[in-house]
Amino acid sequence: MTPATLREHTLELAKDLDTGDWMPTDLERVITQRLLTAADPVGCLTDHAVRDAVWEGAEPLTRASDGRLSLLLAEITYSLAGNGRDAAGLASAQALLASVNRRGHSDA
Question: In terms of Cα–Cα distance, which of 75, 69, 2 is closest to 34?
């Protein structure tokens, strides 16, 4: 994985979310809500919060929507843990999670 991978995957998922090609499952929405709640006090995602959220969904998350959110979370974790942290990619990924969360609430 490279820093560009996170940005590319985030842009692809954001486009698919906007066009309706990706419809996040209830599990994916719960995971994004947990991540955003964990990020709120510090203002950004942490590798610990991502790992905790993934642990909650573990195996089913890899099957939901062909594992698209699961892959993004792996890329986020890689970027957070790596020496070459991609701040722009992480901000875009967090914005995508917020978009998924907003759409989940508007569907309810």
Answer: 69
